[in-house]
Amino acid sequence: MPDTIPDDQVVPRGRPAALLVLIVVVGLEFLAMAAVTVFLLVELLTAPAASVASAIALLVLAVLATLWLGAMVVGLRRGRAWVRSGVVVWQVLQGALAIGAFQGVFRVPAVGWALLVPALLAITLVLSRSVTAVLARRD
Q1: I need a surface site. Which of 54, 81, 137, 139 has the fewest CB within 10 A?
Q2: Sign (positive/negative) of CA torsion 91, 92, 95, 100?
Q3: What's the average model confidence in pLDDT over 87-107?
């Protein structure tokens, strides 16, 4: 009698701990970016901006970043292969912002560390063997 059970039902598809931690890290980044977006919206509506066009552009970028991170969280939860590149790109951008927070006239090292540590953790996790094995499955 031929085997009619699909391979993914033979072995239970459990999520490795590294993937769960990655989902939490990216989820917290999503929540932080959503808070920044709400803050920018409130500031735009309540405080006079030196440049309204720049304030609107910054708000639009914040909304897009929030949507991007939301899509990454959903993709990670569903185990989609396409999410790896998006997570890596976001972490590199976040790392660049962290480096900027360590330098210059307006440096704030605490913000730099708050951005750099999760970025390095997420890159390490998304490139780990267990996460790569789960996310390498094609849809």
Answers
A1: 139
A2: negative
A3: 93
Euclidean distance between CA atoms 23 and 18, whole angstroms: 9
Closest CA to 134 of 31, 23, 24, 6: 23
3-state secondary structure of 137: coil
Lowest-confidence region among 8-22, 43-57, 83-97: 8-22
Q: Is the separation of the CB atoms in 34 and 49 below 8 Å?
A: no
